[in-house]
Amino acid sequence: MNTINGEAPERRDIEALLPWHAAGTLSRRDAERVERALAGDRELARHYELVREELSETIHLNESLGAPSARAMEKLFAAIDAEAPVARKVSFDFAGRIAEFLSSFAPRTLAYSAAAAAVAIFMQAAVLTTIAVKDANQGPMLASSGSGETHLVIRFTPQATVGDITKFLDVNKATMVGGPKKGSLYVVRLSDTDLAKAELARVVERMRAESKIVEFVATKE
Amino acid sequence: MQATSDEVLIGRIASGDRLAMQVLFARHHVRVYRFVLRLVRDETTAEDLISEVFLDVWRQAGKFEGRSAVSTWLLAIARFKALSALRRRPDEELDEETAEAIEDTADNPEVALQKKDKSAVIRKCLEGLSAEHREIIDLVYYHEKSVEEVAEIVGIPENTVKTRMFYARKRLAELLKAAGIERGWP
């Protein structure tokens, strides 16, 4: 008898799982249980074919429903734009970006990375200490490390998103190398060499024009 | 190249990233629309509701804890919106819709069977199921949701999910039998 209450419990459980087995959403353990049962039970295997038929027609039915018009998206973004600016946390989240970056690696890669990170943290501490000492000697607007590279100090606007900042850095071929420091200032490397005065002034002017993204840019010749 | 995960997009949306919102919308809006449309059976209402679903995501992204897949969260919001819309709908309108559904299942499968199109009959009978049964069949077969995920979306225990799926399929078999297709189950 093929009712949900009229069979041996194990077979009943397996039968109840057939729709999820057909859709491929069972755990490996359950999927193996179902596979073993199907291999030894012709009646169950016939029932499974009916489930697969239902699955196929349900997909067909849903796919034939079409898609919404562009009106849905227009309405959504009009509503988003009309909303008062929501108080959101400052969007440049180093920890979040690092987590996002690390999530793309396999566990073994991460294990090697952890060892490398420990060395990197030690090295970075030494570099930051050097910068802090230089800051104390040369004032808060220090922007050049004196290592032949060109650095800037930047403060981003509270409204700037991670996307805005990433694009801004890409466009200006700049790399974030430190911060946030006191006053929400970030240190950005602009070039591996000392840029000419005129060139540096031109880049800084261009950056300052992006007033929706940056509210402060400083350099030191 | 690996696509940005839904969870990362939600994190960006929580920071007010409009572009991340566009990406998430592009990725999921069609399936959410189809899920809602199968419940409310009205295209204009379904379009309005998906705008509301994603607006909720924009507003609530900071509260998303990542304990379930983003698609599961979206469908749970969509279901709540659809049921709320159905409750607001006048009884008169619901009666007309029910009458249409009954009429559909009574006549069309037989016509289709005369044309020997078994697939069309099954699809017609799937449309003739109650909203509760349509919902669970769609979540399992089309939206590829596990027992646990369906339980979360519908708000019922996992054992009830399995039982409801069984009875939805049993009802489908009855509708098919009435339309002239005897499948030998249950």
How many distinct folded domains of chain A? Answer: 2
Q: CATH class of the largest domain in chain A, anyone?
A: Alpha Beta
Helix run count of chain B: 9
Largest sheet of chain A: 4 strands, antiparallel
Rounded to the nearest angstrom, the distance between the terminal CA atoms of chain B is: 47 Å
The strands making up the biggest β-sheet of chain A line up spatially as 2-3-1-4
Topology, element by element:
The complex is a heterodimer of chains A (221) and B (186).
Chain A lengths: L8 H15 L4 H13 L1 H22 L6 H13 L11 H9 L4 H32 L11 E7 L5 H10 L3 E7 L3 E7 L5 H12 L5 E5 L3
Antiparallel strand pairs in A: 1-3, 1-4, 2-3
Chain B lengths: L5 H9 L3 H23 L2 H18 L9 H19 L2 H24 L3 H10 L3 H12 L4 H8 L3 H21 L8
Helix pairs in contact in B: 1-2, 2-3, 2-4, 3-4, 4-8, 5-6, 7-9, 8-9
How would you portray this structure in words?
- The complex is a heterodimer of chains A (221) and B (186).
- By secondary structure, chain A is α+β, with helices and mostly antiparallel strands.
- Chain A folds into two domains: 9-63; 94-218, Alpha-Beta Plaits.
- Chain A is built from eight helices and four strands.
- Chain A has helices at residues 9-23, 28-40, 42-63, 70-82, 94-102, 107-138, 162-171, 197-208; strands at 150-156, 175-181, 185-191, 214-218.
- Chain A has a four-stranded antiparallel beta sheet with strand order 2-3-1-4, with helices on one face.
- In chain A, a hairpin with a 3-residue loop joins β2 and β3 (185-191).
- In chain A, α1 (9-23) packs across α2 (28-40), α1 (9-23) packs parallel to α3 (42-63) and α2 (28-40) crosses α3.
- In chain B, 77% of the residues lie in helices and 0% in strands.
- Chain B has two domains: 6-88, RNA polymerase sigma factor, region 2, helix turn helix motif (Rna Polymerase Sigma Factor, Chain: A), CATH 1.10.1740.10; 91-177, Arc Repressor Mutant, subunit A.
- The longest helix of chain B is centred in the middle third of the chain and has 24 residues, at 91-114.
- Chain B has nine helices and no strands.
- Chain B is mainly alpha-helical.
- Classes of the chains: A alpha+beta (221), B mainly alpha (186).
- At the A-B interface, α1, α3 and α4 of A face α1, α2, α3, α6 and α7 of B.
